[in-house]
Please model this.
Amino acid sequence: MNASCSDLEAALAGADPVLAAAFHRHAEACAACREEVALWDSISAAAPSLRERWPSPGLEARIREALAGEKPARRWAWPAFASLAAAAAFVLGLLALLPRGQAPGPETASFSPAGLEAERLISEQALADVERAQEAYVQAIDALAKVAAPRLADEGSAVFAAYREKLLVLDSAIEECRAQADQNRFNAHLRLELLSIYQEKQRTLESLLREDPHAS
Amino acid sequence: MNTTREDRLSAFEELYAAHGERLKSIAFNLLRSRVDAEDAVQEAFLKAFRSWEGFKGEAGAFTWLYRILVNACLDEGRRRSRRREEPEPEDPMPREAPRENDHPLRLALDKALGQIHHRPRAVFVLAEVEGFTHREIAEMLGIPEGTSKHDLFEAKNALRRLLRPVAETRA
Model:
């Protein structure tokens, strides 16, 4: 196998050892690619120098004091949480059926042209299943959000204000990610990312519902 | 297993002693401010304390604490992105002057890191700066290991592009 300058990013991704070896041979004779590889390696070499250590004499005492003033969390055993977790697991399971071929980056699989049409038909079915399961999961989270809504409306609580803020950020991230996923429906990577944001929203709502309603 | 309040406080003191410095470093590299980093670490400990019952038995204590911290930093980063007009915070505790044994790329890399997307930046900081494995990062961020590897590639690739002019100048 021969590699050329255009294989730089695929070789750096390291997903294909044969390509990486071929590119290494190419770089021995190509100064530009050799420099790119050297730069790539130097980033990893320099990274540990970014570890930042500085003395914070009052921080530990500040944290201890804050913890000492905290009220212990209440335990909740809410069956709805379990069903939401199961729904998320179901969506994840279905996502595994989707091909990774259109996900960007090092996980990109190579497609066999002969099997493309058959794979497309299977993928359409898998995608429809994923979209249905995802919609059910989203509806379950929306229902949870409705339960949490009265608490979020508490304007006087700093704790609930922080939750409102976080949920706004998550909803914005969901909106962005959904728009991208809608443009590239087969991209399993985007769907996983979307699911992880929904899961964070679910955790946030659960956490909100565990809060003491009289917290300030 | 029931734990008393004192047990919990003692457990958190141990966590701070073992991981406080690393948590601060991660928060600093994600928030670009020592003051914000210290606030984020304090907030992470408070959140962890509040949800102690939920965490027990779910994951290693330190992984769970890092997850809370990184999520808080990512949220703050997204919040800043939404208010694009907001300038980078001016840190009243600026980082120390370059050290003699600094890697020659350190300053350029530090600056470039502030320009890449939040989650790839977080994965880069956890993997390359702090040395966590992809398995640990996946657990911390609640993402698949493959996504962690992909994000690290995205981060390094973005950094390579940003640092190319610096490398050319040095050549």
Observations:
- The mean pLDDT of chain A is 76.
